[in-house]
């Protein structure tokens, strides 16, 4: 069994055991990567960044996780702003060690709201996996941005969940053959939600309705409300055994 598989197995064993976790404080760097100094080109304001940090801390506070912003960089590069030359960009901008969160706010990222890298046991310092680590976020999804239904800053909450090792709630669909999202207290879900479809039950033969309010679904920002106890346990497990190890 690989080290990562062993960690996954231990996280599953820990799930469901409600314990008092030690708190986690995450050193964080923001990187604004824009095509010009215009907001429409991704050059978000200091207030938007401050509001984004507040949203992160509010959403993770119930789980004893907080984020301390250590610095902000601003770069004008049209190629990087459109998610070109990702590795070169991150080798130039990345700060800190493997438990340091780097978030890149960009003008465009292939039609997506964001993406983030999972904890990896192969991400030794100086490796490409180490540099790739972090989250890329569409600038207009920040609080006050122009991304309709996705401009309350919760795209970052979702993507940072991946950084902590969380899968989508709809991972594996209704089948349990692949382990789903590895979380026992999120009901099975056949596919991603859209909007805020109260009462949606895409796996009617499984217990519970779809967890549309969970940050790891694809609901509107206004619909997002929570992580579960077992998701919290997994985040701490991935932090302690991979990121902060």
From TrEMBL:
Residues 97-237 form the Peptidase M43 pregnancy-associated plasma-A domain. It holds the Pfam family Peptidase_M43. One of its GO terms (biological process) is proteolysis. InterPro entries: MetalloPept_cat_dom_sf, Peptidase_M43. CDD domains: ZnMc_pappalysin_like. It comes from the Eukaryota. Keywords: Disulfide bond, Hydrolase, Metal-binding, Metalloprotease, Protease, Signal, Zinc. It comes from Botryosphaeria parva (strain UCR-NP2) (Grapevine canker fungus). This is Putative metalloprotease 1 protein.
């Amino acid at each position: 069994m690989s080290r990562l598989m062993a960690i996954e197995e231990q996280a599953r064993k820990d799930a469901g055991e409600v314990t008092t976790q030690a708190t986690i404080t995450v050193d964080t760097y923001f990187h604004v990567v824009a095509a010009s100094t215009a907001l429409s080109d991704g050059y978000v304001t200091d207030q938007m960044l401050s509001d984004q940090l507040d949203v992160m801390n509010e959403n993770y506070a119930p789980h004893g996780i907080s984020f301390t912003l250590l610095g902000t960089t601003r770069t004008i590069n049209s190629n990087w702003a459109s998610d070109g030359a990702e590795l070169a960009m991150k080798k130039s901008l990345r700060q800190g060690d493997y438990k340091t969160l780097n978030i890149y706010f960009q003008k465009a990222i292939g039609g997506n709201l964001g993406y983030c890298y999972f904890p990896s046991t192969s991400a030794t310092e100086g490796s490409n996996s180490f540099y790739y680590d972090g989250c890329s976020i569409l600038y207009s999804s920040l609080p006050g941005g122009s991304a309709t239904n996705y401009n309350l800053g919760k795209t970052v909450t979702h993507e940072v969940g991946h950084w902590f090792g969380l899968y989508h709630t709809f991972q594996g669909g209704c089948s349990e053959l692949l382990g789903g999202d590895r979380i026992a207290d999120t009901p099975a879900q056949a596919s991603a939600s859209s909007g805020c479809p109260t009462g949606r039950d895409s796996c009617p033969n499984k217990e519970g309705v779809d967890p549309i309010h969970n940050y790891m679904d694809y609901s509107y920002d206004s619909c997002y409300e929570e992580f579960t106890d077992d998701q919290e346990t997994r985040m701490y497990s991935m932090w302690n055994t991979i990121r902060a190890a």
